[in-house]
């Protein structure tokens, strides 16, 4: 089934304890679509960049079968830019600079050829823009997955609460879940979110794995214990991309299949952190992905 | 097979966001033996208390089939006392008061009837005392499991390093693993610990579960997501007690059985945190334990 992803396509400049980068390709939708491209070839992107965005990077997306018809290129404008520095623990980071540029007035245009999408992934951007995408689709997708962040919980809380009523799955990290609900225990936070709209809640805990909540069921997927986390940027988006990519590929939104989707998402995220930015996501093989998934099975399987 | 546990039997006074206690029964060996008592009835305790320790509390241990022949009662002396206050996140705590009392000159005497023990659990206490126990056993147990803490890594590092050469399994939390090795990544920390003596390393991550490292294999067990953590005191010791209790019961130290033992340990720990101190550990039923273990299976099982 076809997947539509909306979100940022951006430049990032990153500093980690292992080094720093110049401007490299980044943005939530970049990570999501690249990750999903290993599962589905019906992979449609809605985003906006400036005329400073190099064709070579768009070519990367095209090579992965990502449909860029919905990628607007604004002449005379600049691409969204974010730079950040990670602390030694790699779990916390400081934003050094944010230039909204083309994102300031992002008007998400949905090409006609995208209208039949069954799976909608609302990558992190302003809730008002995410809602616009839902409203511009003539048919409601089978599954709408929303990612958001602390910034929007702070400055666009009412918009976010309205949007939550329209989505099926919310993907947030543990701190965002707590901030959104005022509940410290993640079981309680997830229960509260499930009263706000989404029937399913995924709480990402970074190196501590991810939790899936749906009705009265909980599933926990570990993160792969890694010797080295080189750069965590985009890991959460890559996780979301693997998750919805697997669902779109299999067209099965049962709890059991969402569990599998979370394992695939976790496997994809474990690749993402191995190199700077999205570099590791550019040329994975099916064998590498299957091998990584097998590691998850070994890691968490036990018999009583 | 018979289990020998050495460690503190103590009074604790606890403050959590949910309330505070007067002096209640605590101590590493208390939690370990109570937890192990649900798995094995050959459960021998070596510890020391003062004459202020009430017989009613010793009766609790006896009711659980714990052999208290090795529990010394020092006339005219006082029981070890610790008081602490948990922060709102329940993951960090401040020590308010420590009175070593009888623990200051603890000389662990091993009754003859304990000499045949196959499983030795060295609960948290000074490494020199833990080593004395090993040296006083005429036959080396089949499996020696060591628990320790940041205090001993700080003030008795050389003793601890010597002791590590003699043990099979080290159980520590994530911060202790990092402190002991200087490695941030737990995979690297575990590998380094495995060069220090223990062939198997268990790293407890509290609400984030536990990792088991042995040779080139890793197993991850989640912690049960709980609505309420009432009091985390003793959860790590309870985990260790369930772990070694299951091993002693089954007399199987294979990797696959250690995985099961970790699941049982995690299940026991999930009970411990539900009430103050060791209260919840006093009257569990086999059905409750099996039900909790089943929840772990549901929580982490997936099929690809």
CATH superfamily of chain A: Ribokinase
Helix content of chain A: 25-40%
The DSSP helix count of chain A reads: 10
Counting copies of identical and different chains, the oligomeric state is: homodimer
Give me the side-by-side strand order of the main sheet of chain A: 6-5-1-9-10-11-12-13-14
Biggest interchain interface, per-side counts? A-B, 34 and 34 residues
Rg from Cα of chain A: 18 Å
- Structural domains of chain A: how many: 1
Order of helices and strands of chain A: EEEEHEHEEEEHEHHEHHEEEHHH
Poorly predicted regions of chain A:
none
Kindly estimate the percentage of residues of chain A that lie in beta strands according to DSSP.
Answer: 15-25%
Kindly state the mean pLDDT of chain A as a whole number? 95
Shape of chain A: globular
CATH topology of chain A: UDP-N-acetylmuramoyl-L-alanine:D-glutamate ligase
Distance between the termini of chain A: 38 Å
Q: Label the structural class of chain A.
A: alpha/beta
Largest beta sheet of chain A, briefly? 9 strands, mixed
Task: Indicate the CATH class of chain A.
Answer: Alpha Beta
Tally of strands of chain A:
14
CATH architecture of chain A: 3-Layer(aba) Sandwich
């Amino acid at each position: 089934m076809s997947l539509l992803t909306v979100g940022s396509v951006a430049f990032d400049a990153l500093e980690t304890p292992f080094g720093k980068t110049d401007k490299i390709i980044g943005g939530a939708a970049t990570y999501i679509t690249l990750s999903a491209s290993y599962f589905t070839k019906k992979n449609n992107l809605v985003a906006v960049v400036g005329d400073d965005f190099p064709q070579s990077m768009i070519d990367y997306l095209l090579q992965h079968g990502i449909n860029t018809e919905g990628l607007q290129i604004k002449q005379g404008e600049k691409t969204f830019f974010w730079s950040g520095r990670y602390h030694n623990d790699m779990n916390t980071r400081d934003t050094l600079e944010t230039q909204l540029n083309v994102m300031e007035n992002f008007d998400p245009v949905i090409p006609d050829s995208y209208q039949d999408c069954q799976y909608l992934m609302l990558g992190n951007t302003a809730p008002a823009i995410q809602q616009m995408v839902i409203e511009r689709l003539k048919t409601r997708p089978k599954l709408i997955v929303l990612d958001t962040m602390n910034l929007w919980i702070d400055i666009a809380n009412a918009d976010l609460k309205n949007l939550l009523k329209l989505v099926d799955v919310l993907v947030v990290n543990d701190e965002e879940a707590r901030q959104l609900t005022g509940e410290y225990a993640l079981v309680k936070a997830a229960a509260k979110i499930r009263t706000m709209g989404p029937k399913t809640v995924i709480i990402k805990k970074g190196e501590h794995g991810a939790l899936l909540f749906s009705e009265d069921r909980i599933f926990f997927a570990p993160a792969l214990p890694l010797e080295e986390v080189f750069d965590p940027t985009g890991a959460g988006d890559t996780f979301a991309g693997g998750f919805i990519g697997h669902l779109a590929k299999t067209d099965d939104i049962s709890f059991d299949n969402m569990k599998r989707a979370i394992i695939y998402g976790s496997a994809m995220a474990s690749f993402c952190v191995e190199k700077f930015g999205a570099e590791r996501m550019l040329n994975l093989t099916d064998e590498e992905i299957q091998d990584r998934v097998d590691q998850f099975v070994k890691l968490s399987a036990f018999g009583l």
